[in-house]
Amino acid sequence: MVIKVYARAKINLTLDVLGKRPDGYHQVETVMQSIELHDCLEFTPLEDGVSLTVAGGEVPSGADNLVYRAALLMRKLAGDKKGISIKLNKNIPVAAGLGGGSADAAATLSALNEIWGIHLPARDLLSLGEKLGSDVPFCLLGGTALAGGRGELLESLPPCPRMGLVLVKPSFGVSTASVYRAYDSCPSGKRPGTVAMIKAIGERDIDCIVQNLANVLEIATISMHPEIAGIKKRLLEAGALGVLMSGSGPTVFGVTADLEAARAVADRYPNCGERVLATETFNPERS
Ligand SMILES: C[C@](O)(CO)[C@H](O)COP(=O)(O)OP(=O)(O)OC[C@H]1O[C@@H](n2ccc(N)nc2=O)[C@H](O)[C@@H]1O
Ligand SMILES: Nc1ncnc2c1ncn2[C@@H]1O[C@H](COP(=O)(O)OP(=O)(O)OP(=O)(O)O)[C@@H](O)[C@H]1O
């Protein structure tokens, strides 16, 4: 029996930093959105132990992989000798600001909660996710949400209207910690109107969503990698309605009316060695 699950990437439609916390993390306020782009995980029950194989991405295959760490946390809770073999098919660009590792960790927690019959309630799963990374709780929730604290305080928002997205990932990755450090040494940039973004989402007004795209970490990442500014400019020239760096970057997303328009913009984008992907926003159907 093989159980297959999708782990969806995220973008940040807004990202504000409200201050630095005593634990060294930053207090954020960010409107987060799941997107269709996903990794695929395959779980096959074993007699005992955890094994992980990775295909298609430059990520660790051993104990440093967030999937492996998530599986060990769940195995402790299973209270029994449990085993699982996991195959991770990587498709989300790595160290990209798209929360790929967090999405994989969240998918592993949810899947093993079912497969091993642990029946951990959602709030306990969220607390466990927080131990693995600030973006993991959002990846467990999915859809459209406002995140606060270090990312773990979540409020579900009405679903964002379906929008096309063009993702442009430069050939380099960035470390999230180094971006927050660069921000601390020079905190600047356009502060997002978080309330205006939430209103625009509620009114399903794509033009207004586009007008309110803002991320205070963008300038910090651009100060280390000025080519990101060029990507933004070229994406706009190729026809995106609005553009923003996602999370700590370096991926830039361009918003379009729908997936078809995203494909047309991706075709027109003058590629300078970046990975260019056309995708769209994703909102799970809630009962
Ligand atoms: C940039 C975002 O992706 C926006 O959603 C998140 O804030 C980062 O989430 P993440 O990659 O899951 O981050 P973590 O793995 O928890 O932390 C990586 C590093 O980023 C910094 N970090 C992260 C989150 C946060 N609220 N403040 C921070 O200062 C810390 O130096 C931390 O050591
Ligand atoms: N399953 C995984 N997928 C991707 N990266 C992983 C995974 N497990 C561990 N990592 C490590 O985590 C680091 C960050 O990778 P990830 O792709 O999650 O970054 P990111 O998209 O910038 O995340 P975020 O947007 O949450 O800051 C990588 O350098 C990688 O070595």
Task: Give a verbal description of the structure.
By secondary structure, the protein is of the alpha+beta class. The chain folds into two domains: 154 residues, Ribosomal Protein S5, domain 2 (2-Layer Sandwich); 117 residues, Alpha-Beta Plaits. Strands 1, 2, 3, 4, 5, 6 and 8 form a seven-stranded mixed β-sheet that branches. Strand 9 and strand 10 form a beta hairpin. The chain is globular, with a radius of gyration of 19 Å. The two termini are 28 Å apart. Bound molecules: 4-diphosphocytidyl-2-C-methyl-D-erythritol (CDM) and adenosine-5'-triphosphate. Adenosine-5'-triphosphate binds next to helix 1 and helix 2.
Explain briefly what this protein structure is:
The protein is α+β, with helices and mostly antiparallel strands. The chain has ten helices and eleven strands. The chain has helices at residues 66-78, 100-115, 122-132, 136-141, 176-185, 194-202, 206-211, 218-224, 227-237, 259-268; strands spanning 3-20, 26-46, 49-55, 83-89, 144-148, 153-156, 164-169, 214-215, 242-245, 252-256, 275-280.
